[in-house]
Amino acid sequence: MFRIRFFEDEISNLRRDSLVVGSVHLCSGQEAIYVGACTALDLSRDAVFPTYRGHGWALACGAPLDAMFAELLGREAGTNGGRGGSAYLSTPDQGMFGENSIVGAGAPIATGAALAGRYDGSDRVTVAAFGDGAINQGSVTEAMNFAAYLRLPVVFLIENNLYSELTPTAAMVANDRLYTRGNAMGVKGVRVDGNDVDAVADTMSEAVLHARSGKGPVLLEAMTQRLVGHYIGDAEQYRAPGERERAAAVEPLVRLSQKLRAHGVTTDELASIEETARQDVLDARERALASPVADPSTVLEHLYA
Ligand SMILES: Cc1ncc(C[n+]2csc(CCOP(=O)(O)OP(=O)(O)O)c2C)c(N)n1
Ligand SMILES: [Mg+2]
Fold it and tell me: CA-to-CA distance for 122 and 151, rounded, in angstroms?
């Protein structure tokens, strides 16, 4: 979780210096969802389909820091040879099958991958991760109904950060208990504190067991808050006074640190965990910055049309 946070901090700096280009959506504040969920998955066969806010998913799945930095910096050594960048990277060797910048588009793809798993003998569970805004997309409802009818092993995971871009989700839905959306279709719905990594791990373990044992999909709503803008450059004028401070007091790293201390981890040990993570991130950043940029003459390679 610390590595993800520090990675995002550095990406923010690199974007400001125009070394990373294009639109970047950071996941700071949502780390407990990715790390908690991945502990419940078997990533040698399971598959995760995140959104454009997907750096944390890739890292939690096990994507190397060096390749992640290199990808966002457009380097040859990137996870996708520098072609995917922030919003389109994929690390299938680690079970992360690609970000998607079309809101709600990952849900049918994850459902298809679960259907494929029924025939290829993998017994795979797939995770369709998307935001609270995406729950209102028709593609998500269609995918949930299809998965429910065929009892496919899909966990539809809502990262509910309370905003869809710059609009509060509470201003867009009549029922803000989003986990109940699948009730009419027979999709089991659960809500979890998405800032508590243990709670996410436990709830996700139950969801994965439910899905893998043939009982059908689960709609898991993880409540969280992003500590940064929707994208880098978002002026965040929509925030209520005091909202940031309240969010910072209950964010996942604070919660994790409190929990570790309560379990006997000393302040020094905690500082050393943080320092190691920070140094790993800074070292990886330097190596990526020193590595060659992708050769423009290869730009047409790996294209499917
Ligand atoms: C089909 C589609 N419609 C609109 C957009 C523009 N758009 C990009 S992000 C976003 C908000 C999505 O909010 P949410 O699903 O809550 O995810 P979050 O960004 O909060 O993680 C929108 C509307 C898009 N990318 N795709
Ligand atoms: Mg959202």
Answer: 16
For a mutational test of ligand 1's pocket, the pick from 28, 52, 162, 164, i.e. the residue with the most ligand atoms closer than 8 A to its C-beta, is 164
What average pLDDT does the structure give for the chain? 97
Ligand 1 mutation target, pool 8, 57, 139, 165, most atoms within 8 A of CB? 165
* Helices 2-16, 65-72: crossing angle, 10 deg rounding: 20
Instruction: For ligand 1, say whether the CB of 164 is within 6 Å of any of its atoms.
Output: yes
232 contacts 202 by C-beta, under 8 angstroms: no
Whether 101 is in the pocket of ligand 1, judged by its Cβ within 6 Å, is yes
Q: Is 0.85 topped by the overall pTM?
A: yes
DSSP designation for 172:
T
Query: What's the whole-number mean pLDDT along residues 192-201?
Result: 98
C-beta of 133 in contact with ligand 1 (< 6 A): yes
Would you give the end-to-end CA distance of the chain in angstroms? 38
From the CA of 27, how far away is ligand 1's center (Å)? Answer: 14
Q: How far from chain centre, in Å, is Cα 25?
A: 11
User: Which residue has 């047409």 as its token pair?
Assistant: 300
**Tens digits of per-residue pLDDT, 274-301?**
999 999 999 999 999 999 999 999 888 8
CATH of the domain at 53: 3.40.50.970
Residue 207 domain-assigned (yes or no): yes
Amino acid at 76: E
Inside any domain, residue 39: yes
Q: Which whole-number Å values give the CA distances from 195 to 37, 160, 257, 276, in the listed order?
A: 12, 11, 12, 22
Which residue minimizes the CA distance to atom 5 of ligand 1?
Answer: 103
Residue numbers of the domain that contains 117: 2-291
Q: Give the chain's domain count.
A: 1
Strands 163-164 and 167-168 turn out to be antiparallel
Atom of ligand 1 nearest to the CA of 30: 21
